[in-house]
Every structure is written in structure tokens, then in C-alpha cells.
Write a structure and sequence with these properties.
By secondary structure, this protein is mostly helical. The protein contains 6 helices and 4 strands, in the order αααββαββαα. It has one domain. The longest helix has about 35 residues. The N terminus is likely disordered.
Amino acid sequence: MSGQGKYQPRSAFGRAIHSFEENAIAIMLGLMTMITFVNVIMRYVFNSLVIWGLEVVLVLFAWMVLFGISYGFKITAHLGVDAITNLLSPSTRRILGLLSGAICILYAIMLLKGAWDYWAPFAGMNATSGRWFPTGFETTRSRSYFETDQVPIPFDWFKAWLEQTFNSYQEGGKTIVESYSKLPRVVPYLILPVACALILYRVIEVTLRIWRGDQDSLIVSHEAEDAVEEAAARAAKEG
């Protein structure tokens, strides 16, 4: 019961997250394709290039990878080995699946803490205290002035909002706003806490599916056999 490709959200919140993931992945793929295509044309036809194009594509690719982790949990697409667990009874497999889910939830919480602690200084916020799990917040030196190498800020209103939100401080009773010349790193690094929060949500969701008996594992290890069976069934139907 891999459930691969058969995900159906059970709540309005689940449908919203599902729609967000699907649209975000589609937009990122489209932007990566478009920017790469434009750069190829600019380079080989006009002997020029969009100087920030490579950096944006690299950022989008990293975003895709991190989104893909939670997406893999959602559709049960992560590979694994079940040679031993398949020898066990269904009830034992379910218990081991729940144990694996609990371990993954703890690990996802630690990932989320690490992601927040890395991103927070770039947003002018405080990182969490505690070595493994968050126990509070501690004063962290701001890194909100760090910028990307070449990526421009696309809109003036967005630039003003970023400066007011992340690169301003109080001095002598006045608000001092520092200007950005390039896109601040707080924007591309935002994917870290977002993706880790999605991973935690999806691991909890799949663990609940195991609890309900909808599936018995977090992984899929027989996708080749499933693909052959689906192709045979499709061929028989078309024939």
C-alpha cells in the first residue's frame, strides 16, 4: 500500500497546503525553464546574458529539492528497503511503521529548529536556545544586511517593504532604514524553515495514515513492480 500518486487531502487546511505545494512547484519549474531559455538565447544569439540568471536558477533548484522532500512523504515516493519487514505480520509492520514515524517526527522537529536558527538572523530575529529541541529564544546578532551576489529586487514596493521590515533599527528615538542594493538573503533562505515545517507536517500526516491503516510504511521499495503492473493493466485495458 504505497499510496504513491493517490494522495487525497482530508481537510480544508490539507487542501490549502496541497494546492500551495503544487502551485509552488509548477511556478518554480516554469521560472527555471524560462530563465535558462532566455539566458541561452541571450548568450548564443546576442552575445550577452542575464547576469543574475544563474544565481536565481540555483536558488530555485535548491527550493525544488527541499520542497521535494516533503512532497515525497506526501505521495509515499521515498525509496527504502523492506526485505525484512515484509517477512513480518501486518500488525508488526504497522507497529514498526509507527515507530519509524515517531522517530522521523522527532528528527523533523530538530530539522525545523536548525532551519529556523539559521534563517532567523538574516530576518533580524532571534534563534532558539537548546541544543536539540527549542527551549526558548536567545539574543542573536542580526545578519539582515547580508545580500545575494547579483539578484536585483524586482519591485520598488517590495524593496521598500524589505528595508522597513528587515533592515531598519532604532537609534536616538528615530527609525533608521538601511537601503538594499541587491535582494537580501532573508528571501532565498526563507525556504529553510518553510520546507522543514512542511516536512514535519507531512511526516505527521503519513504517520496518522499508518495509524488509520491506510498504509503500513513511510517508504516505497517496489515502485518498479508497481510500474510494470500499471503498464500491463493499461495495455490490457487499451487492448
